[in-house]
Amino acid sequence: MTVSTIENRDDLFSYLNAAMALEHATIPPYLTAYYSIHSSTNSDAAHIIRVTAVEEMLHLTLVANVLNAIGGEPDLTRPGFVPSYPAYLPDGEDDFTVDLRPFSPEAVETFCKIERPGRAPSDDSRLVKATEGRTPLLVSSPTAEEMRFYSIGEFYEEIIEGLEKVAANDPALFCGDPARQVGPEYFYSGGGAMIVVSDLDSAQQALRFIAGQGEGLDSGIYDADGELAHYYRFRQLQLGRYYQVGDHPGAPSGPPLSITWDDVYKVKLSVRLADYPEGSELAQVARDFNADYGAFLASLTKALNGQPALLQEAVCEMFRLRDGFNRLVCNPLPGSDGLHAGPTFEIPAAIGADPQASSDAGETTGSVTR
Predict the structure, then answer these.
(1) Per-residue pLDDT tens over the stretch 16-73
(2) Contact in structure between 328 and 276 (CB atoms under 8 Å)
(3) Which residues pair with 276 in a beta bridge?
(4) Quick one: CA torsion of 154, 156, 162, 167, rounded to 10 degrees?
């Protein structure tokens, strides 16, 4: 049995805040790939990416329910919540970064690496030494310095075991206000129902659902609800066919997928505000997008802090960012050899928890370096 890195409620707060940042960190790359696809093309791929992004919102909200249940306060506006891309997101081997890139074979490969199953060879190898100088690390241990987890699944397993340990020593662990819970009436996703968290069993159920739907660790290709795990959804794009019940992991036997890799805006890889010509209209569009995204995170924070009725509207806001995406990805970026502009997700630091706030986009949050 590995030595626990979670000893008390504060350690759980640190881990659950890290889990929320982790779940969110996949959303900007998924949305960038999704909105880079030319309208009315690649419908199979667009659907897979869109549904997965919505389910990442489900995962983020489930983590928030666990955090609220033990008396924490979710904050998606805190400095460092949004990573600076490219970002390392260790999942098994240290062999990739998560970039903001257009829909492409490289993007799909990254998505598979994010979601790939990864059981450590033994409990003792759940935590491994982080590679020196590799930041930001999104799956590092918040309490064990310079250590990271073998995979996202092992990261969640640590939290599940930590909850059990702390609850055994603290009968009042689940002291949160039930009114702060987001129930299924406030969030609907075809890929799973919202779980209200009130005790150890429901907290562990929520976290196991997240790990299972992403990686398919314990349920194989399909999760416990019969939904295809995220990893295998993206594998369909690599293998060119849909999975059917009974298929082996590497051999989907369903209908073929239609993909045209050229029907995509060639967005510059992990573009930054510094790449935009100073004073240009395009630079202003990029800053406006970042402010709008910050406002989206502020609205989501309110929804997760006692106003759950705002959640569905916040999810809709995420897809109303389409106009901002289109104003960027449809335009070549001067000085980039024909590559197109894209959102940078450098969120203005002064947005805070007020969705009406605005600030100079030059003051951005730092990277996630827990």
Answers:
(1) 998 999 899 999 999 999 999 999 999 999 999 999 998 898 999 999 999 999 999 9
(2) no
(3) none
(4) -150
